[in-house]
Write a structure and sequence with these properties.
By secondary structure, the chain is mainly α. The protein contains five helices and two strands. It is found in: Membrane.
Length: 201
Amino acid sequence: MRSRKCGYCLSSLLIPLALWSIIVNILLYFPNGQTSYASSNKLANYVWYFEGICFSGVMMLVVAAVLLVLENDSKYTCCQSENCSKKYTTLLSMIFSALGIAFSGYCLVISALGLVQGPYCRTLNGWEYAFEDTAGRFLIDSSMWVWCLEPVHGVEWNIILFSILVTLSGLQVIICFIRLVIQLSRILCASYSVIIQPGII
């Protein structure tokens, strides 16, 4: 019962994390609140992967909703025996927890790549990835940020939002991994086995 309540709380945490991921990803399309850069396709290419909107956002909301239903205290039966229902519920929880790790992991990787690559901005040489060859050194050397002339404060905008996405998706990975461990502990420690024996149903 305690692990079930813990799983329910963890699943609930995925919802605000997913909503924030959607909001942060949307903000990446509007540096300094301006729409002109998105309409003229002058944004970093990793922004267009929709990692925060689709994967760490909408897909994680679906995962969280399913996990919350599975963790509901109401007696859910998918077959004739309660033991059988627990087996199917455990298997589904494990599958969706693994999907949550995959979805949030995708957002984590893409956001980290976007963070290291840096923004697409106008320099003295025109529009380019000014920090692409710095191996992320610009992240700790703010003196290099003056290379980007436009958008104004575009480097800070890029660093802050991608960093938030990395944090949010990282937390989602951790939560889904903990949930997966909880399900495994139920299999190993509970009185029912996840393997369905013939003749039980």
